[in-house]
Design a protein that fits this description.
This protein is an all-alpha fold. The chain has two helices and no strands. The mean pLDDT is about 85.
């Protein structure tokens, strides 16, 4: 399991465990019905707000990661394009050098044949 999935599982477990613990504490505490309902309501509001905060943080972090990944991908594509262009230039120069060498060799062979009389 990846580290991110493990962290998410721990976070969800902590939230669920906290909620269960809070509800259990409220239910077993000696209070009147009105006080118990008010305490439950307050705890649910607190849990709800905390969950919204966590969701907002996760959303922002995800957005930042997506932006960073997009920029890194764009940079990588640019680098690959530049490198490919450099390789093509190098290949063209090498091809020109080979063609020049072949042309020189061809001329030398012609000159050699002309000198020997063939």
């Amino acid at each position: 399991m990846s580290r991110e999935n493990s962290s998410n599982g721990v976070l969800v477990g902590a939230i669920v465990g906290g909620a269960i613990g809070a509800i259990s504490a409220l239910l077993f505490a000696p209070k009147t019905g009105a006080n118990l309902r008010e305490d439950l309501s307050n705890k649910f509001k607190a849990i709800s707000e905390r969950t919204k905060d966590i969701a907002t943080t996760v959303g922002q972090t995800t957005k930042e990661l997506a932006t960073t990944a997009g920029q890194n991908t764009k940079d990588l594509a640019t680098n690959i394009k530049d490198e490919a262009g450099d390789l093509m230039d190098h290949a063209k120069k090498s091809n020109e050098n080979i063609m020049d060498s072949l042309s020189s060799t061809k001329e030398e062979v012609k000159d050699g044949l002309a000198t020997t009389g063939r």
